[in-house]
Amino acid sequence: MAKKYYITTPIYYPSGNWHIGHCYTTVICDALSRFHKMKGEEVYFLTGTDEHGQKVEKEALKRGITPLEFIDPLVAELKDTWRMLDIDYDRFIRTTDEDHVKCVQHIYQKLYESGDIYKAEYEGYYCTPCEAFWTEGQLKEGKCPDCGREVTRQKEESYFFRLSKYAPRILKLYEDNPQFLQPTSRVNEMVNNFLKAGLTDLSVSRTTVKWGVPLPFDPKHTAYVWIDALSNYISALGYGTGHDEAYKKYWPAELHLVGKEIVRFHAIIWPAILMALGEPMPKQIYGHGWLLIGGEKLSKSKENARPELTDPHELVKRYGADAVRYYLLREIPFGSDGEYTTERFLLRINADLANDLGNLVSRTQAMIVQNFDGKVPPRGEAESADNELISMCGQLFERVDADMGALNAPDALSEIFNLVARANKYIDETAPWVLAKDPAQKARLGTVLYNLAEVCRLCAVALKPFLTVAPKKILKSFSCDEEAGFDTLKFGLLQEGAAVEKLPPVFPRFDVKKELAEVEKMVKKNTPSAPAGQLPLGGAPSGASTSCPPPASGGGVGVGVRPSTKSEITIDDFSKIELKIGEVIACEKVEKSDKLLHETVKIGDEVRSIVSGIAKFYTPEEMVGKRVVIVTNLKPVKLRGVLSEGMILCAEDEKGNLSLLSPEKLVESGANVR
Ligand code: ME8
User: Is 21 close to ligand 1, i.e. is its CB under 6 Å away?
Assistant: First the structure.
């Protein structure tokens, strides 16, 4: 029997002004869903919209229309965004769907009958944008601790869910199933910020909000939007509706992928509801990071989501669905935040898609057309120069599968593009244009071109879950089945003699300067006062480019360089220092230190722990995603008990301010610095 794979995105608030950050969760889920489908699994991929609640009620009232008249066009726009990005979901659920409403009422009725829901009076604070309840003690300076906005005081009759009762079972759930909540940092957050202190019962109904699901046992109350919303994961499968075949087949979900700000609803409230219902737990909740602009979450409410720069429709129209999907899947280290700028986006797609993959395909096809009349040449005998390339092809699926098993699309793509890079190097090593001049080398030329065509085919198949346009074009141009699955990821299946068509460039190469100038012009036209330096166009977040300093000991931190006076060294002395580019994939403060940050840095395939004395100049959030220069052969030391396996370099000004050194262009982590 085929393995089942049920995967969900959160359901989106119909807020409109969809930005590229909204697309992040859904594009990853789509890639995972396509990947598992290609493995032959029975996949159910769910997404949708979260339509009830005070926010919508107020917006509709303001416009003098009904909530549905307000929501419907926004839902249509979101569906259109998913169509443009080739999101292939199995169901788009709306919390206004009849079967969903029926399921929510069933859940409330069941919990009311079992005594897990009881009536009392709610007194506390409510954040409407987050649709979250807070006690006075939880507020930060009187504002919502999550988003920092105003809260309103509420006092009303309400039904409560006995959340407090489930705290010990939730803690045990985390302990017994380390995979349940990932990455592990989110477990610490849940335990330290919420569970340790004990949970209070949760107000789960409102009498002041009319736009919601009426409670079956007391219809003047409507359901709390988070219980309504979370229930979508099982209502979509027919739970509680009398038609629950899909529920029996697919539940428990393999994965709820959500943004990190909504982990607490998914990792505390949702398990407690399921426990109260006596239903099994989802296998994993993964709280991913955010797309940032200038170090802040890209967000409509923060007004950093500029349509000219971040509207997915505009981006897809200008650069294509593959480019947007590729950027989202490749650029942001999974689990961490990642800075979004137009420049980074363009550099990434130019470097990987247009240069590396695009050139490999077009060079291979051009040489086959020129030398073999547009037919795949005979494979011939492999020589030792071919071994490494062929062996990488043999390992491709296994490696990509391991990365996708860990939900790590950036690493999976990096495996595929390592093969592309190896093939481009193979072209330089075997110099087919030289072979082509010597008729005695025709068979060898055929073998080289066969191998290259095979790499193109294999990479196209492996890329199908991630990109939806170009891989099919590439497969078709080599006369291969566009619907090919992973069973075809074996070296040597390409048919000798099959027709090869020379494609026009599969990925256009964008002129970065020109694009940036055009985008800036558009922004300025729409907001003449926009200060150019604050637009997310350039390489680093505004106001926070590169920096860092050292504690005295060997490990850890950057060196301030002054025009000075150390004794002369020879080039041999200098060459003893190994410098590489690293990418900061996670960062946190070192406990009890106001100077030190602890970074996790990816250097090529290696991940290292580094401690740096830069906490006064950079926040951990600013550090994540930065590419920095690292001394990699420094003897490891422990700083405040934390291992430091290298030093991040910084410039230091006269006042002792530190600024990180970063490569001026986008350079892969692991690159040598010399
Ligand atoms: O939270 N970077 O809906 P939502 C990455 N309705 N992801 C981002 C992002 C950014 N800058 N901005 C938004 C809700 N997202 C609830 C969910 S589920 C039962 C109810 C992601 O429209 C965000 O993290 O505010 C979340 O995963 C998704 O967009 C929907 O957010």
Answer: yes
Indicate whether residue 338 lines ligand 1 (CB < 6 A): no
In a domain, 428, yes or no: yes
- CATH classification at residue 361: 1.10.730.10
Q: Ligand 1 centroid to 24 CA: how many Å?
A: 9
pLDDT at 549 over 70: no
Averaged pLDDT, 158-166:
97
Is 567 a domain residue?
yes
Residue 239 makes CB contacts below 8 A (sequence gap 6+) with 103, 106, 247, 251, 279
Compute the distance between CA of residue 558 and CA of residue 141 in angstroms, rounded to an integer: 36
Ligand 1, atom 5, lies closest to the CA of 290
Q: What is the rounded CA–CA span in Å between residue 77 and residue 92?
A: 13
Domain count of the fold of the chain: 3
- Whether 24 is in the pocket of ligand 1, judged by its Cβ within 6 Å, is yes
Quote the mean pLDDT of the chain. Answer: 90
Q: What is the pLDDT of residue 135?
A: 86
Tell me, in angstroms, the distance from the centre of ligand 1 to residue 10's CA: 7
pLDDT at 373: 97
Q: Report the atom number in ligand 1 closest to the C-alpha of 259.
A: 24
Three-state DSSP string of 117-173: EEEEEEEEEEECCCCEEECHHHCECCECCCCCCCCEEEEEEEEEECHHHHHHHHHHH
pLDDT, tens only, 225-254: 999 999 999 999 999 999 999 999 999 999
Q: Is 25's C-beta closer than 6 angstroms to any atom of ligand 1?
A: yes
- Quickly state the pLDDT bin for 627 (edges 50, 70, 90): confident
Under DSSP, the state recorded for 356 is I
Which residue's CA is minimally distant from atom 27 of ligand 1? 259
Would you say 361 and 501 are in contact if contact means Cβ atoms under 8 Å apart? no
Q: Residues 471, 588: one domain?
A: no
Q: Which atom of ligand 1 is nearest to the CA of 233?
A: 19
Check residue 645 and give its pLDDT.
84
CATH number of the structural domain spanning residue 595: 2.40.50.140
| Ligand 1 and 260: CB distance under 6 A | no
Please tell me if the CB atom of residue 262 comes closer than 6 angstroms to any atom of ligand 1: yes
Mean predicted confidence (pLDDT) in 32-37? 98
